[in-house]
Amino acid sequence: MKYKRILLKLSGESLMGEKQFGIDNKVLTQYARDIKSLVEHDVQVAVVIGGGNIFRGLQAAEGGMDRVQGDYMGMLATVINSMALQSALEDLGVFTRLQSAIKMEAICEPFIRRRAVRHLEKSRVVIFGAGTGNPYFTTDTAASLRAVEIEADVILKGTRVDGIYTADPEKDKNAKRFDKISFNEVFERDLKVMDMTAFTLCYENKLPIIVFDMNKEGNLRKIIKGEPLGTLVHL
Predict the structure, then answer these.
(1) pTM above the 0.70 mark?
(2) Long-range contacts of 184-191 (CB under 8 A, 24+ apart)
């Protein structure tokens, strides 16, 4: 396998599937099967999930709610999604640990870096919930931060599209996909791969990113084998 330890970043919206809100169990099960296939090939897997299918703090702030309060509510939404993925994985016989940046001992461990690494070494899937535990930071930033902390080989950003394009492929039919692109070119073209804080953190720590279509079953394993899927962001 090309990568030994990965951090998988999933958006909350992707869990909705065809629904308008909440979690589509078919999508959740497919994600769990894909993650299990990596564990079976001795790949160490950490996961960060967004919460946009349930609540987005930024949108709440635009509606007049206090931004900090909204962001904390969004963090709790990520914990709900994390618990759902944990349950789906355990239904398939995969050992997991859920760690939260906000203490809630009844349902998950607090985030402790050394403990997280030890779980990974024991072939447990570690799911990081509640973002960074701080308002004003996205789950993209949480994914970058945790990936750096656990010394992951790569961040795999699972999306609805099959890579990074010159423009939004859902709006512009002439948009062209990149097979590979450098961090500097992303900066120059002002492409929206991740929010700037998250992206800069990866750049400064020389952490590559692969953006790919997570909704096609089997793609995750193909990437781990080194097949040229999605778009690789490199130095």
Answers:
(1) yes
(2) 186/233, 191/164, 191/166
